[in-house]
Design a protein that fits this description.
This is HIT family protein. The chain has about 140 residues and is of the alpha+beta class. It has one domain (about 5-140): HIT-like (HIT family, subunit A, 2-Layer Sandwich). It is about 30% helix and about 20% strand. The protein has helices at about 5-10, 50-75, 125-140; strands at about 15-20, 20-25, 35-40, 75-80, 90-95, 100-105, 105-110. The strands form 2 sheets. A 5-stranded antiparallel beta sheet has the order 1-2-3-5-4. A two-stranded antiparallel ribbon has the order 6-7. About 30% of the residues are buried.
Length: about 140
Amino acid sequence: MAHGTMRTFGYPNTLVREYDHWTAQLRPKQATLGALAMICKSEVTAFSDIGAEAFAEMPRVIGDIETVLSQLFGYEKINYLMLMMVDPEVHFHVLPRYAATQTFQGVSFADPGWPGPPDLTHAAEAGEVVQARLLERLRATWPG
């Protein structure tokens, strides 16, 4: 059953890959090109409460995220932000970082915070068609 944080990030429509304990979802607001949310499926609000199995699965999920985002977009750095101020269940904002503006399907994706902290208030005007193409590309490249 999907909890509130998963739904806030558009589950199931934004789902890239579902794991036993995590989901990788396309972030509806693309602060940078390929921004994802890595969300624990347990309804826990403290990182220490996710359970040993979820901790054990994290390297696989992170490895898949980094492999796919590197292959598709060649990011320069990647940031994982665990904020949980608005959406309480354990999750990370996954932000590939770029020194230069990236283009996907004719849309420019800037990273105005580079080289400092990411600017989560910024998002590219991607539109539904570009979001759908981005989701298709991610799903097609994802292992498994």
